[in-house]
Amino acid sequence: MTSFTEHEQNIFVSFYLQMPESNKRLVLVAVICVTTLLLLLMYCKTMGSFSLASQQMVIKPKRSTFPRQLPPSPSCECMNHSVLLKDVLPKEQREAIMQRRTKEFQQHKARTSSVLSKLLYALPNSPLQYPIQGYTVRPLTPTLIPVLELHAGKRDSYKRAARLAQVSPAAEGGLGTFSSGQLPSSQPRCSKHHEGSAAGAQPPKKQAKTEQQLATETARLHRELEEVFLNVSKGILTTVTPDAQVTVNGAGTRGLSIESSSLVLLNELLAKVSYTSSTYHINSGDLAFFRFESHEALFPIVIKQPQVPVLYDMGTDIRSQVTIITKTFLRYPQLKVLLASIRKFYPDITVIIADDSFEPEHISGENIQQYIMPPAQGWFAGRNLAVSQVITKYLLWVDDDFFFTENTKIEEFVEVMEAVPELDVVGGSVEGNQFYFSILYEEGDGVEGGCLIRKSGGKFHPLPDLPKCYFTHGVVNFFLARTDAVRRVGFDPQLQRVAHSEFFMDGLGSLMVATCQDVKIGHQRKTAENTNPRYAKFRTPTKSDDGFKSQLHYFKNHLKCFLYS
Fold first, then answer.
1. pLDDT single digits (tens) 347-370
2. Disulfide engineering: 333 pairs with which of 74, 149, 297, 530, CB 3.0-4.6 Å?
């Protein structure tokens, strides 16, 4: 701004004092007006900048919508040097095998998939309160839906709609369709005559509605139905008889709407809404659709038959807690060394032996159970037989050529399992080697199948408060396991000669596995006295065995390729 010198200011004051009084007043008014205009201009400029900045900062939120479904899984990529399993199929049978595998995989997905795997989104700033997890009902049994409540500001009327949505192609498209015969008829309204009308005058005749008017009213009714009437396919909704100030529609059907002028009464009725599944299934689910005005929510309902627990009495000693099991074939010298070492440290613990030797040799001893199998039934068949006879909570698997040492402390295994109840298997160390591994698995698409890599030495983080034990996916042939968990996965008897990782592959996602370095066992050395040439013939896998295993992985495990690294 321009500033005046002291001399210029003195001249202006002298000139002003010599002016007539009328002119002085005009000058004063002019100065005030100019000053006011300048202040107004400065204010408008400032507010204009603020308004522009505000407009730039405010972003109108977009209305969220519930996703219909997750994108399908893409095809997985096989790593270099992977075995491409389709290539090992016999050419003349390839197409037939692929068709059978596709059919079996579709049935597997039907058994294992659920509506509860649908992706749910929580929309922001909702006045709806509802359960987001843990609401479980028994099949065909009415069960209250907990914590249903509406938190809304005061208004003339509250409307709420609850929906149990069928997750199927027919139901995912919306709330269902209604024919004109399903639309509720409009309630007649009382018309108040004009005060100036003649007494007894007839009301005017209602004119026939045009086709356009009927279409408009039908669309309006559809919109109203969408707000308050909802369809379900897996259950029904019920509630108690409402208060006079509450209107309930659809009680005992697949949809329910509640309207009231009292928020308190509406919430009292919401607290008494029950869900009942319509069909019997021991493990299924449903989705509840909950809406108030423009606010929407989805929450899961688990339909599950409670299971009767199967518990094991741990007793007071190791014999009542653990059974040692092994499988033997043509290796009686090694088996006798193993049994002698067991009796040195655990004199009365039960030992179960599955024996498929050609000429079985009777093994005697207290608390030793020998089960004779048909000859050469194989590795996993013998494991299944031994596991089937265990009556203790835990089983300890050992190979028939191992031997116990002072570091083979079964009690430490039991302590780990009891400290971490989620564990199913805990492995130890054989001659200082733990041989644990992780399994990297991608499901892939539904056509080609998944990709699997077994990575030696792969492990995760330590167990809680057990720094020498780590979570992993698979362990060595020396492990303690929960008997019921092993039975749940089982050993595929088709694998006769060489098989171990396959048990943990079948149990991936089902078995919680850990490895601990402090519990150790010995491995017997081969000598001329304990070597059986006939055993080596059956022990060494042939090329056809490898091909069979690859075909088994292709079909049974729905794999595209696998790699052992």
1. 999 999 999 999 999 999 999 999
2. 530
Instruction: Work out how many domains the chain is built from and give that number.
Output: 2
Closest CA relative to residue 325, chosen from 379, 276, 284, 376: 379
Residue 180 lies in a domain: no
Q: Are residues 295 and 336 in the same domain?
A: no
Same domain, 131 and 231: yes
Whole-number Å distance between alpha carbons of 434 and 429: 4
Is 293 in the same domain as 324? no
Give the domain extent around 366: 318-564
Instruction: Give the model confidence (pLDDT) of 394-451 as tens digits.
Output: 999 999 999 999 999 999 999 999 999 999 999 999 999 999 999 999 999 989 999 9
**Which of these three, 281, 304, 327, is where a domain ends?**
304
- Torsion of the alpha carbons at 232, 237, 243 and 247, rounded to the nearest 10: 10
Place of tokens 């066992």: 521
pLDDT, one tens digit per residue, over 483-519 is 999 999 999 999 887 788 999 999 999 999 999 999 9
Q: What does the longest C-alpha to C-alpha distance in the chain come to? A: 143
Q: CA of 51: how far to CAs of 41, 42, 60, in Å? A: 15, 14, 16
Whether 84 maps to a domain, the answer reads no
- Point out the least confidently predicted range of 64-68, 185-189, 206-210: 185-189
